[in-house]
Amino acid sequence: MGDSFYEYLLKVWIQGNRTAAVDSYRKMWETSMKGLLSLVRRTSPSSFAYISEKVGDSFIDKMDELACFAPGMLALGSSGYGPDESQKFLSLAEELAWTCYNFYQSTPTKLAGENYVFNNGQDMTVGTSWNILRPETVESLFYLWRLTGNKTYQEWGWNIFQAFEKNSRIESGYVGLKDVNTGVQDNMMQSFFLAETLKYLYLLYSPPSVIPLDKWVFNTEAHPIKIVSRNDRAMSSGAGNSVEQQKSYKRPLTRREGRFSNK
């Protein structure tokens, strides 16, 4: 449930134009990624990479579909390393994306369960079996396609979209599944299906000139935020502003994300 924190360490650095003013966020992100590497495990017999969970001193061989944002985050952050480290993190991103795609491919409906467990000698088993139209896997496919140009990620995204069409499409919209093994539907379309899942699927097949990643960064709810220019940096830091200008600035109100209840 702390996914947005790690994502934002990286994205604040990107949104700040990767300058010295925001370098501390990049350093914190790199430190947290050392922790992430300590959680990576691989299954037997197929050697699927996954991120285990750590509770106190115990490790749990379970990975949520929510954690499938990580391949995209790792791919996005890999360019900030030197060549060797960059390739290591990009390779891990691709491995994890393959695992997340197989979360979908391993069920009769070709839709992923909420989480998966990894038992000795078994590659992956559905833990919690519902699907509520989450975006994390297609989000990562979008980043990997944009950053590598590998059309395989478009093919995987198309297969996932077709599974949504087959199993979740109804006359009035889309619904989740109570069980990805049986295909029994629920009666709810989460708002993030429109705001994130379908948006990332759309962008997966759009030219890179549509919301280019060298000019925009997406927040955790898939809203694009412009990367600041040199002049914007001076204004945002208060440099050159009069005292009256700074006093007149009012911080915009934020909204409660409700992350724990619906994401």
TrEMBL record:
<comment type="pathway">
    <text>Protein modification; protein glycosylation.</text>
</comment>
<dbReference type="InterPro" id="IPR036026">
    <property type="entry name" value="Seven-hairpin_glycosidases"/>
</dbReference>
<keyword id="KW-0378">Hydrolase</keyword>
<dbReference type="InterPro" id="IPR050749">
    <property type="entry name" value="Glycosyl_Hydrolase_47"/>
</dbReference>
<feature type="binding site">
    <location>
        <position position="220"/>
    </location>
    <ligand>
        <name>Ca(2+)</name>
    </ligand>
</feature>
<feature type="disulfide bond">
    <location>
        <begin position="68"/>
        <end position="100"/>
    </location>
</feature>
<dbReference type="GO" id="GO:0012505">
    <property type="term" value="C:endomembrane system"/>
</dbReference>
<keyword id="KW-0479">Metal-binding</keyword>
<feature type="compositionally biased region" description="Basic and acidic residues">
    <location>
        <begin position="254"/>
        <end position="263"/>
    </location>
</feature>
<protein>
    <recommendedName>
        <fullName>alpha-1,2-Mannosidase</fullName>
        <ecNumber>3.2.1.-</ecNumber>
    </recommendedName>
</protein>
<dbReference type="GO" id="GO:0004559">
    <property type="term" value="F:alpha-mannosidase activity"/>
</dbReference>
<keyword id="KW-0106">Calcium</keyword>
<feature type="region of interest" description="Disordered">
    <location>
        <begin position="235"/>
        <end position="263"/>
    </location>
</feature>
<comment type="similarity">
    <text>Belongs to the glycosyl hydrolase 47 family.</text>
</comment>
<keyword id="KW-1015">Disulfide bond</keyword>
<dbReference type="InterPro" id="IPR012341">
    <property type="entry name" value="6hp_glycosidase-like_sf"/>
</dbReference>
<dbReference type="Pfam" id="PF01532">
    <property type="entry name" value="Glyco_hydro_47"/>
</dbReference>
<keyword id="KW-0326">Glycosidase</keyword>
<dbReference type="InterPro" id="IPR001382">
    <property type="entry name" value="Glyco_hydro_47"/>
</dbReference>
